[in-house]
Amino acid sequence: TKVDKLQGNIESVLNYTIEWNAKERNFTIADLQKYRKDAVTESDEQIKIIQKDIEKNSKNPYKNLPDYQSEKNKLLQQKLTEVKNQNEQLKNLPISMDSSKLINLFELIIKEKLLKTDLVLYDLNAHLKDKILNNNDSNKDHYVSLRAEVEKMQQQIKTLDISNINSVQLSAEELKKSIVPLKKQTSFTLLRMRIVEIGTPILLSLL
């Protein structure tokens, strides 16, 4: 699901930052070369994914958001330019123990991971907005609440100081906690699950 994908992206940011903090004073050139190599590989893959999404020219999945697909395509083009620039900077960044070069490497890697997170949040926001605009949906208040959480996360990422490693870690921890309400089921879904949970053993006992 979109929420599971979001959780995976945020945990990737958090785990990476924790690992970086743990090694910060004990880096070797080999460590930094591996970080850069892995980041370039991840960046290359992201470029392919975004290009594929653009070329697919998908149909708009949201009947209540007529401009969604055109806006999504513009966003994808923007993100494609960003990730290509980051990819080029990673490839050309000198590997050095100099503190400014270490921060540059960290920033480029975190930018790449946050770019993926930003795209997932965009889709999740659109999904929830479509649900809210559906007049036949009885769980509107639930989706309004969830969308507020998503927009809060988007703003947090937008204003994040990625040059401050501790700040990135703290924000990633907060973002991870913010996922919990996004996994909360609607009251109708919970009722349906409860009916299945109770009804299945009864039906099986009658067989």
Q: Please state the structural category.
A: mainly alpha
Q: Percent helix among the residues? A: over 70%
Low-pLDDT residue spans = 186-200
Shape: globular
The tally of beta strands, per DSSP, is 0
Distance from first to last alpha carbon: 35 Å
Instruction: List the secondary-structure elements in sequence, H or E.
Output: HHHHHHH
Mean pLDDT value = 87
Give a quick summary of the entry.
It is built from 7 helices and no strands. It has 207 residues and is an all-alpha fold.
Structural overview:
The chain is mostly helical and 207 residues long. It is built from seven helices and no strands. Helix 2 (29-56) packs antiparallel against helix 3 (68-92) and helix 5 (140-158) runs antiparallel to helix 6. It is globular. The model is unreliable at 186-200 (pLDDT under 50).
Furnish the topology, listing elements before pairings.
Elements: H1 2-23, H2 29-56, H3 68-92, H4 99-133, H5 140-158, H6 165-182, H7 187-206
Relevant terms:
single chain, 207 residues, mainly alpha, 7 helices, globular
